[in-house]
Structure formats: C-alpha cells, structure tokens
UniProtKB/TrEMBL annotation:
This is Outer membrane protein beta-barrel domain-containing protein. It comes from Sphingobacterium deserti. It comes from the Bacteria.
Length: 185
C-alpha cells in the first residue's frame, strides 16, 4: 500500500499544466522594413445605410513593409449578402492597400493601425465593376512573435450596383489575423 501511495504522489508531482500563449512582447520587430505580412479578415460583419442588408466578407491580404511601420499590399474581397426580399448576392473585389502602425499608444504586445484601400468591386447582381474604397482603424494584438489577432472597424464605400440603389456605403467591423514573416536583411 505504501508503494502504491508513493507512485500516486510521484505521478501527481510530475503533472505539468501548460496554458496557451496569449501574448508576446515583440516591440517593433514584426513591423520592420523588409518584413512581410500575410493574413486577412476571417469575418466582416456590417450593416448598410441604404437598405436592410446583412453581409459577411472574407478578405485575404498580403503586404510588404516599405519602411518601419508602413506596409503596402493587396487584398481580395469576397462576400455574401442577404438582402430583405431580394435573392442573395455574392460580391467580389480587389484593392491595393496601405497600412500604417502608429508609434504612439502602442505596447510591447500590440499596435494600433490605420488602413486605407482603393480598388474595384462588383457583384453577382450586376455586370458592372466599379470604384470602391475603405478607411479603417484597428488594433493588432500579438499572441506570438509572428502572429497577431486583429479587430478593425471603419467606413467602406462601393459604387457597384450591389443593392437596389446605385451604390453602397456603411460601417463595418472585422476580426482577423496576420502572420508577420521576417524579410531578407
């Protein structure tokens, strides 16, 4: 009995609990000149001002840091929209973007940023491809040295014939992630 008790206490003493990593002190390393960022918004939920419409988008993006804190790149916009009393609409678009990470208000584990994009957009409803742009602000929280979770919100506009009017505009919120890859130095 004493031997079994000893084994039980020994096994309990060797039990190791690990918690998933929730943040990493990265400083400026991920946003240095020459680095790459890959990722995107895994869900963009928005409401349009022009009609009773709900939309969800997937926006993969890739960018290159031309200088510390400033990335330029391209993103695709793929979406689904459910509009009251109208058949579902599938949207698409592509746009170059510029993203700037602000030095003020930052911490060792996160950065505030602003992003602007100008491109083209279209939908399954119309055959026209038209002008689109967006102005967004967000926060990137680094959970490892190379991966950040993001929340971003802002204003987006499209001139494409996506709803019953001649265009759309609205506020949106997106949740996403980015992978930061070191470049050649």
């Amino acid at each position: 009995m004493a031997l079994l008790g000893g084994f039980a206490l020994s096994a309990e003493a060797q039990k190791v609990e690990t918690m998933p990593q929730t943040s990493a002190n990265v400083g400026l390393e991920p946003i240095k000149q020459g680095n790459w960022m890959l990722g995107g918004s895994i869900g963009n939920i928005g409401y349009s001002f022009e009609g009773d419409k709900f939309g969800i988008n997937l926006s993969p993006r890739a960018g290159y840091f031309v200088t510390d804190g400033l990335a330029i790149g391209a993103q695709a916009n793929l979406g689904f929209e459910a509009i009251k009393d109208v058949p579902n609409v599938y949207t698409y678009g592509i746009s170059p973007f510029a993203r700037y990470y602000f030095p003020g208000g930052a911490s060792a584990t996160g950065r505030f940023f602003g992003q602007g994009d100008i491109g083209i957009a279209g939908s399954s409803r119309g055959s026209d491809v038209a002008f689109a742009f967006g102005l967004n602000a967000g926060y990137a929280h680094f959970i490892t040295q190379t991966v950040a979770l993001e929340v971003m919100g802002g204003y987006n506009y499209s001139k494409a014939n996506i709803n019953s009017g001649n265009g759309q505009s609205g506020l949106g919120i997106s949740l996403g992630f980015q992978i930061y890859l070191p470049g050649q130095r």
